[in-house]
Amino acid sequence: MQKINKILLATVIFLSATLILHFVMHNSVQDKRKAIKTEIFNEKYKDKITSISINKTSEEAEGIKLSKQDKFWTLTRNQDTKKIIADSKQCENFINEITKLRNMYKISDQISKKDDFRFFSDTSVHVRINFNDTFVDYYFGNHDFSNTERYFMTGKSTALYQTDSLLDNYLTTSRQVWGEPYLISREIFGKLEADKIIAKGCSDNAALLELRHGGAAQEIFPETKDPSQNKKPAEKTLVIETGKKQRITLKFYKAASSEYSVKSEYYDETSKKLDVFWTKISSWTYNRIKEITL
Predict the structure, then answer these.
(1) What is the CA radius of gyration of the chain?
(2) CA–CA distance, 14 with 152 (Å, rounded to integer)
(3) DSSP letter string over 67-91?
């Protein structure tokens, strides 16, 4: 028994020493690398960004595009033209992340398909940033062994760089991550207060403002200049007025057995239409709206 314990103890000591040596050697290599203190995207152009595209090699059709409007962002997917309102805070956080100073390390002057950094695999992420009538491409590949740093390269160079993995939260095409979830947007006119809006026929403004949609929906009918072509009547129409004379019109259409499509129209204080969005809601949400409105 004592002999077995001695063998086990020796094994533990050996493995511990090996692990410590590995980290010491790794840190020694890290220390020898020349750190470049710079931004991924030049900070002086952050206010000139007009759109951001994010694509995964394995899910090209699911790629997204975030487009800057006057006071808010919109979100579309590659496979269709349906758009929803994006989460502006998330977009701003991403821009702040790519324009902050960080340590980057140049790993190689040139990369090939034989290199094991997974730029050419299904898990790689391609980000394109449009600004000032031009664009820049970034390609994000594999993580290092510690999963705390990630390899990337730009479209204008074959050089390979490594930096922290703090961008990982943004390298996704999920509309749940990038889209604004609220049925009544908090982006276009800001967060509306229940006691300062007039929602005709509504008995619970606070509950109305908390309702969420389930993503982009197909238009029930295309927009036309001839109103007579828009023949399908809405199941319900709800008009909301803000304290600043802005207006939101919601029109509800039956789309499926358990879903409704909502056409949301936003008008400024001069009654100019700012934009139109189609989103989907569940039957539960629609019935909740019916409960709190006449």
Answers:
(1) 26
(2) 36
(3) EE-SSSEEEEETT---EEEB-HHHH
